[in-house]
Amino acid sequence: MPSGMKGLTVFVADIRNCPNKEAEQKRVDKELAKIRQKFTNSKSLSGYDRKKYIWKLLYAFMLGYDIDFGHMEAVNLVSSNKYSEKNAGYLACSLLLSENSEILRLITNMVKNDILHGNEHQTALALNTCANLGGEEFSENLFSDIAKLITPGASRPSYIRRKAYVCLLRLYRRDYDTIQPDTWAARLGQALQSEKDTGVLTSMCSLILGVLETDPNGWDDLVQPAILTLARVMGGDSPPFYVYYSVPAPWLQIKLLRILQFFPAPTNTTLLNRMNDILYRILSKPTVSAHAPHHHGKKRTKADAERLNRSNTEHAVLFEALNLIIHLEMDCDLTTKKMASSLLGNFVASKEANIRYLGLETMARLASDPDVLPQLKRHTELIIGQLQEPDISIRRQALNLLYGICDRDNWQQIVDELLEILKGSDVLMQEELVLKIAILAERNAPDYTWYVDVVFKMIEYAPEVVSDEIWYRVVQVVTGFDDNTDNAELQQYAAKKAIEYLNDRFADETMVRLGAYLIGEFGHHLQSQLSTSRQFQTLHRHFPRVGSSTRCILLLAYAKLLNADEDVSEEVLAVLEEQQDSVDPDLQQRAVELYRLCNESTATMENVLAMMPVFSEKIQSNNPLIRRMKQASKSRAAPRQQLEEAAKTEGVLFKTGVGPAAKAEEDDDHEEEEEEEQDERNGRRDEHDEDEEEDEEEEEEDEEEEEEEEEDRRNGPRSRGAAGGGGRGRGEADSGPAGGGLQLPPTAPGDIQGMWKNLCITPQGPMFQSNSLVIQLRHEYRLNQGRIAINYANKSPNVVVQFPSVTISEAPFMRHQASKPPDVLRPGETYTHQVMVDCLQPYLNPPKYIVNCVLQTPQGPPSNQNLPFTLPVCLTKFFSPASLSAEQFTSYWESMSGPGREMQLMGPLASGFVADVQRAAGAPQQLSPQAIMQRFNAYLSQGFNLAIIPLSNAPGVLFGAATFHTGTPQPNDPSKKVVVACMMKLELDPSRMMARLTARTAHPQVTTSFAQILAAYFITPQQQQQQQPEQTPQQPQTASLI
After folding, report:
1. How far apart are CA 822 and CA 810, in angstroms?
2. Main subcellular localization, coarse class (predicted)?
3. Residue 52 counted as an annotated binding residue
4. Is pTM, for the whole model, over 0.70?
């Protein structure tokens, strides 16, 4: 803070002594009003007063207050001849103005004069302002003047030249045409080779990197100066004050190594040998381990800090050298590459997590080099051990590396280990695991029967994350490709395997889809071992409990079985006739079409329902699973645009419909068109014009069909993900499990309360489990309406379950309509009870769902049981996320503060939520604030359908917004339904493990129910304390929702 200004000193002291935010606001407003009044008559102000008031404005701005005046006074200070006043003016312009401000035009000429001024201090101020603001105005008028400061003959101090290079980089990023390689390549190369000041060299390399990140073409003249400069720095040509923990100018070394990664290996043998010698010297230099004994509760000593800093410095240079080795590929010396692989093995075994991560990531890129692959494979056991790490980023890198080093020598060991890990892996890793296991199994399996076994095991271990693309690929492989290979044995094996897995009454829906296709297409191979009727029964036992799209696949499989064997005609036609009355339009259409087809002539049915033909060789070579994987670049030197695009995606997979996988089909078609056009130009076609026109028409039809198929692959069957996080589905009610929903630990079979609580925030799960009866529930919601599918299954071998009554309690806040409940379930039978609900008004306790059942056993008397359930239809099921900007949220939040609109609940974190955080984090003994906030975020966004608002940077605060929908018409406009805006704020006190929840809505009853529902999951009920504004009417205390 500038000294000698009493008024500024008093103002800062007053601000620091304010007891609260309101007092500070009052004091700042008073001072701003005073300054504004002074500036209205600025002609009478002295330079000292103007400078003092500008410093006060800057201090208020740094406190977070908006400053919308005083800009002209700052401009006037810039023109002052006094350094202190010019300093204040430049600083105010840098902080208070943007690059698009019109006021910048007023100071452009003054900045230009100061840049060319002989006083280096004024030049430094002008360069600082130019670098901070940038902008088109400065770029057009000042670039050439700044470039003169770095002319070889210019006698400017080194710190001015450093600022000039940084300023040129700022202006270049605003206008890429300012620096072109034809004029600047030789200039920068000469400066790089002749400059002796290490600081100037570092700034120059920053400019060079900024230019190369945009377009590295045409800058080859920089290779030789970069190599020579790097050799000079490593040789000790650096001042002692640039030696950081025994490493000479580490930042300059890193930048030079990165510059070399933008260019191919030099063709000059002397330069290439020089570069290899540099890399060998870097790798052979011993490094210090960052790990040191550190006892719990003992402060880190100065020696520990120095050891850590030195380790970070040495490893930073070392890893950048490894990146250059990977970039050089075959041009790098073999001895150096082997030394690199050995060092990376030591890094993977390091006790420091960051070193392990970087070692795995670098080794995964080095694995593409065949020269060092045998050395890397020696570390397979060590790499597999990293898959047990609690840090998911390390596990992901270990998985990438195993994928890279897997070949026909070690594929069985790696795939078997990955399958074992898949059993107990968390959901975040399972998707990547199943994708890479599927690719490795297909690529390396000695025969495809082993590949089929692997895929069935994956569906058994992690069915929720096995995407449709994976089982589509199994279908392609089993069906066969156009390579004259007889796949009859493989088809028979796959169909038999499907029968084995579908004998499980509760096989996952993905398993049912794959099994239905395999049995429908290739079940005729099993007729000598298993009758077609038994195959039909195996499939049809799963029909009542699967979703609509899976039922469509089953119906087609039934028709194919009928085409193969007429003995099942009665059973198949009965099912098709029954489904013609289905409420689902897709299922109904499929049933009508197949029923009509099965009653047509035998020839027509055989033509339509014949076995699928083999796929083309193009599909065999273009595995869609590989397209979903992000191929890591060998070089870390990438254009800025590529780096920004890579940063927009997470993990190592492209989501369905995103990235290269989504456009691969169009790209292939485009490439084929270009090849055909080239063939025509070269005269390689001899067909007549008429034949060519017919071929073009057929190609257009094929392209349209391929586009439709690609659209299907992108969107997937509608049942996948329809009941996503928190039950907010948009597809069919009977959808499969949503892989992206909130993942909760399974509850004990007798914990009905826990099952109900989980169902309130997840799309499906168990509702009741006993030795005889299992009740599963799936539900999805759209606005004010919901659809619930309650599946009953009798899993007892000898107990008959009768249902005298199944009732749903009437409630004024909700309408419901239900299908016929089950009457009786014999052993092995299932039944789905469909319930439609329509929310009319806010509520807390959902309707009751009372099941009265009688269990009849052969040995004893019947047992009557009454099961009083509550439908898991809590208020938040009818929420839709409200994506608001920070300004909109703040405005609505402030407008909702008032009587009946706000409710606060505070207390210790609920024990169940704490246990779930520990489970999700994978560290039972640790409970970090970051893990708690991540789980809060998952519950609110996926479980309670709230949009998380990025309002606060505070680590322990979350804001959310949603809209509550009802089916009640608005009084003034019956065409519209009543909706209620809902907002919440969740604060965490990690030191006391307590949370405070604030709910604000536009309706008092919604406020109460909303707050209590959230608190039931986050806050211990016995110690909840209600805090409300003084005028707020008394609200009921938090009630148990169970």
Report:
1. 20
2. membrane
3. yes
4. no
